[in-house]
Design a protein that fits this description.
single chain, alpha/beta, Rossmann fold, 7-stranded mixed beta sheet, 3-stranded mixed beta sheet, 10 strands, 22% strand, globular
Length: 250
C-alpha cells in the first residue's frame, strides 16, 4: 500500500496512479493500432497526461473532449498549460463539447477512452454516450472506459463513496457510484458493440493527513464532510476502490 501524507505529493501520486492504470490498459491492446484517439471527459488532464506518456506520441491525432462547465470551467486552461510543455502538443486537440455531440465532428476513430465519466450519467444518457462512442469509431475500433467499482472493501474506500454526498458540484446526473460493470456490458451490447470484456484491478493507494484534505479540496467537498467524518478520516484515510474497466470492439 502506497500512503501519501503530504498535500504537495498529491499531484505526483495521482500521475503515477493513473500511469499504472493506463499501462495496464495499454498492455491489453498492445497489438492494436491506435492512430486516432479520443479521450472523453479529459478535464484538467489527470488521465490525459498519463495516456500521452504511455502512448509516447505513436498516434496521428489525440482529441480531448470535455464541456468544461460550471466548476470545471478552469480545467481547460490547466490542461492547456500542461500540454504546452509537451513535444507532442501539436498532435493534441482540445474540443470543448459534450461527448454527446462528438459524432457530428469526428469519425473513423480507432480508440475512444475515458475515466470516471460513466459514473456521472443517468441510465438514459449512459446509453446515449455509449451509442455516440460507437458512432465515431471506425470498423474494429475500440471503446475503453474505467471507473471506480461500485463496491467498497473497507472503510477507507467507503469514505470515497460518502464524499460524493457532500460535493459542491451539481453536474452529476445521478448519486454517484459507478454503474455495475455487467450493466455497462449489457448497454454496450445493445448499442452494437461486440467482443465485450471486463477487468478489475486494485492499485493500492491511500491518502492521509494533509494529502487527504488536499484531495477533498480537489473534489470540491463541503466542510460538512470534514466536520462529520474527521475522526474516521484521520484513522482510515481515503483509499481508492478497485478500478473496473470495460473493453468493447465495434
Amino acid at each position: 500500500m502506497i500512503i501519501i501524507a503530504k498535500a504537495e505529493k498529491v499531484d505526483d501520486a495521482l500521475f503515477e496512479y493513473h500511469l499504472e492504470l493506463v499501462s495496464f490498459i495499454k498492455n491489453k491492446i498492445k497489438n492494436i493500432a491506435c492512430r486516432k484517439i479520443v479521450e472523453i471527459g479529459s478535464g484538467p488532464g489527470t488521465f490525459t497526461l498519463p495516456l500521452l506518456k504511455e502512448f509516447g506520441g505513436n498516434f496521428e491525432i489525440f482529441y480531448c473532449i470535455d464541456s468544461y462547465l460550471g466548476p470545471y470551467s478552469k480545467d481547460r486552461q490547466v490542461l492547456e498549460t500542461k500540454l504546452a510543455a509537451k513535444d507532442i502538443r501539436n498532435k493534441v486537440k482540445i474540443i470543448e463539447k459534450n461527448a454527446l455531440e462528438m459524432d457530428s465532428l469526428l469519425s473513423e476513430i480507432d480508440l475512444v477512452i475515458g475515466h470516471e465519466v460513466f459514473c456521472t450519467l443517468s441510465p438514459k444518457h449512459l446509453r446515449r454516450v455509449i451509442s455516440v462512442c460507437y458512432n465515431v469509431l471506425g470498423p474494429g475500433g475500440r471503446l475503453i472506459h474505467s471507473d471506480f467499482a461500485p463496491f467498497a472493501l473497507n472503510r477507507s474506500e467507503e469514505l470515497v463513496q460518502i464524499i460524493n454526498d457532500y460535493s459542491e458540484e451539481d453536474l452529476s446526473e445521478i448519486p454517484w457510484f459507478s454503474p455495475p460493470a455487467e450493466e455497462l456490458a449489457k448497454i454496450s451490447y445493445k448499442c452494437g458493440f461486440r467482443e465485450i470484456n471486463l477487468d478489475y484491478i486494485k492499485l493500492p493507494i491511500k491518502f492521509k493527513n494533509t494529502a487527504a484534505l488536499g484531495l477533498l479540496r480537489r473534489w470540491q467537498t463541503k466542510n460538512e464532510f470534514i466536520d462529520k467524518y474527521h475522526a474516521e478520516l484521520t484513522e482510515f484515510g481515503i483509499e481508492f476502490p478497485m478500478e473496473q474497466i470495460l473493453y468493447c470492439r465495434k
